[in-house]
Write a structure and sequence with these properties.
Length: 181
């Protein structure tokens, strides 16, 4: 099992993963924002990314203004820097900060919830376990569905024949299979 809390696994990955590793080191994200417990999640870590995939970094903070200030101080001058505050996502205040660095769109997603308990991290763990269990053809079908415009969780839900809300159903599936607890 990959330790997704340390990005060093990207060094031995695909060309895109190696590029992501280099970009994240250049930005020094994990050192500069260490007080916010950053974790890289999404499609690039598990090799199901498409050309438009971004680097999703989830963080934890009860002080959203402090987080915005810290990220703005470090990266506010970068291309397409934008801050969005969502009143409520699952009853949690959420702040999303996006910008572009080299070829990568970057997205910071912060809640007061521990990153290891945030849905995007849990989804990635489940998807990773499914990809380990399934054949390469499954991974390629996921990528194909994503290239057709489907988001990651709906693509997995479709191939796993999960009904209902794909985001919630994927979590239930992961619990049932013992991929998360």
């Amino acid at each position: 099992m990959i330790n997704f809390k340390n990005i060093s696994y990207l060094k031995a990955g695909t060309a895109r993963q190696r590029e992501a590793h280099k970009a994240l080191l250049e930005l020094n994200v994990f050192e500069r924002l260490k007080n916010f417990n950053p974790i890289l999640v999404g499609t690039i870590p598990i090799n199901i990314d498409v050309e438009s995939s971004d680097l999703d970094i989830i963080c934890q903070s009860e002080n959203h203004e402090g987080f915005i200030k810290a990220v703005s101080a470090e990266y506010g001058e970068l291309s397409e820097f934008e801050v969005k505050e969502i009143v409520s996502y699952k009853n949690l205040k959420t702040t999303i900060i996006t910008f572009k660095y080299k070829t990568f769109p970057i997205e910071f997603f912060v809640q007061k919830k521990q990153p290891e308990k945030q849905d995007s991290y849990l989804h990635m763990l489940i998807e990773y376990q499914v990809l380990l269990k399934e054949k390469e053809a499954f991974r390629l079908k996921i990528i194909d569905l994503k290239e057709q415009g489907l988001k990651t969780e709906p693509a997995f839900a479709k191939l796993l024949n999960l009904g209902g809300n794909p985001y919630e159903e994927l979590l239930s599936y992961g619990l049932q299979k013992g991929y998360i607890s």
